[in-house]
């Protein structure tokens, strides 16, 4: 998580300094993508937890 | 490599802010896998070269129509283009399978807000309903219909939203699966790797970019692992 915060901050810093519109769009998209990956991880983690706790999967 | 043909139709394309915005993003510098074809510029007199157009179609894997959505349809030259180019024995009918297996999609610019395109909204119908003729076209010519890229009220978008459109547009033109997170990751990584530091005058810029790419990859590994664990439970 700390890594992501650092990366996001740095990407935003680069965004401010970039002199090219398309490049700015790319840097912004990279920030969004990191967020998306984080959300997806949380969703999958939640799904995995749910699976582990589902009685249907308590096979011995 | 996927080859994409973007057929643009707009009566005054030079004066359209949204069209110029999109076109510039793929022409400077030009994307080698994309052919941009503005039919009003190619045929100012309206005399369409049917053979040439059919050859263009054959030479590409993904065919996209890009136009402003006027009265729930395209500008007139694109309709004429459809009538004249998508002929029997070429696009459909006996031995008319030249488009079979290709992909077909729409890039629409729309002047009204997205929320109005649903039952109860001002427009009353969804985009999926209003674009039925194009879906039928894809079906009849045995092309796979892609989810359209619809840009609502371009002029009112914030700079941030415009930049999002720019990235989505490039991905829509070039990615095998423009929707999937994984393929968008690949795209961003490829673009970051090719970044031009001339326009990014920050001392440690390349270090930051490397770290970002690494983080994207680490995240991908974690995601794949999680997915694997979940799938294992369902075996």
Question: Would you mind describing this structure in some detail?
Answer:
The complex is a heterodimer of chains A (60) and B (235). Chain A has helices at residues 2-17, 21-53. With 60 residues, chain A is mainly α. Chain A has a domain at 1-33. The longest helix of chain A has 33 residues, at 21-53. Chain A is elongated, with a radius of gyration of 18 Å. Chain A starts with a helix and ends in a 7-residue tail after the last helix. Chain B is of the alpha/beta class and 235 residues long. Chain B has two domains: 4-177, Flavodoxin domain (Rossmann fold); 180-235. Chain B has nine helices and six strands. Chain B has helices at 17-27, 39-42, 50-58, 76-85, 127-130, 132-140, 159-174, 181-193, 205-234; strands at 4-8, 34-38, 62-68, 103-110, 144-145, 149-152. In chain B, helix 4 links the parallel strand 3 and strand 4. The longest helix of chain B is centred in the C-terminal third of the chain and has 30 residues, at 205-234. Chain B is globular. Chain A binds chain B through residues 3-4, 6-7, 10-11, 13-14, 17-26, 28-30, 32-34, 36-38, 40-41, 44-45, 47-48, 51-52, 57, and chain B through 25, 160, 163-164, 166-167, 181, 184-185, 188, 191-192, 195-196, 199-202, 205, 208-209, 211-212, 215-216, 219-220, 222-223, 226-227, 229-230, 233-234.
CATH architecture of the largest domain in chain B: 3-Layer(aba) Sandwich
Structural class of chain B: alpha/beta
* CATH fold-level label of the largest domain in chain B: Rossmann fold
In terms of quaternary structure, what is this? Answer: heterodimer
Nearest-integer average pLDDT of chain B: 96
Rough outline of chain A: elongated
The CATH homologous superfamily name of the largest domain in chain B equals: Flavodoxin domain
Features:
heterodimer; A: mainly alpha; B: 235 residues; alpha/beta; six-stranded parallel sheet
């Amino acid at each position: 998580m700390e890594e992501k915060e650092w990366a996001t901050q740095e990407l935003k810093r680069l965004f401010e300094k970039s002199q090219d519109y398309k490049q700015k769009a790319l840097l912004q998209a990279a920030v969004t993508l990191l967020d998306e990956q984080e959300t997806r991880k949380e969703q999958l983690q939640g799904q995995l937890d749910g699976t582990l706790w589902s009685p249907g999967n308590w096979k011995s | 490599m996927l080859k994409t043909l973007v057929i643009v139709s707009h009566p005054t394309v030079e004066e359209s802010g949204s069209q110029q915005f999109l076109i510039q993003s793929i022409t400077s510098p030009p994307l080698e896998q994309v052919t941009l074809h503005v039919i009003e510029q190619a045929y100012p007199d309206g005399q369409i070269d049917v053979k040439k157009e059919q050859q263009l179609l054959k030479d590409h894997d993904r065919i996209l129509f890009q136009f402003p959505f006027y009265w729930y349809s395209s500008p007139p030259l694109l309709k004429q283009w459809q009538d004249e180019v998508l002929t029997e024995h070429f696009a459909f009918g006996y031995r008319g399978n030249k488009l079979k297996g290709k992909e077909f999609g729409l890039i629409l610019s729309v002047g009204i807000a997205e929320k109005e395109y649903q039952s109860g909204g001002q427009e009353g119908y969804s985009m999926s309903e209003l674009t039925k003729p194009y879906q039928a076209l894809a079906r009849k010519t045995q092309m796979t219909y892609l989810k359209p890229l619809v840009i609502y009220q371009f002029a009112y978008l914030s700079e941030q939203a415009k930049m999002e459109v720019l990235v989505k547009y490039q991905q829509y033109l070039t990615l095998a699966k423009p929707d999937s997170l994984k393929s968008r990751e690949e795209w961003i990584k490829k673009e970051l790797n090719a970044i031009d530091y001339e326009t990014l005058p920050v001392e440690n810029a390349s270090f930051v970019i490397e770290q970002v790419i690494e983080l994207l990859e680490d995240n991908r590994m974690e995601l794949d692992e999680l997915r694997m664990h979940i799938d294992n439970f369902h075996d």
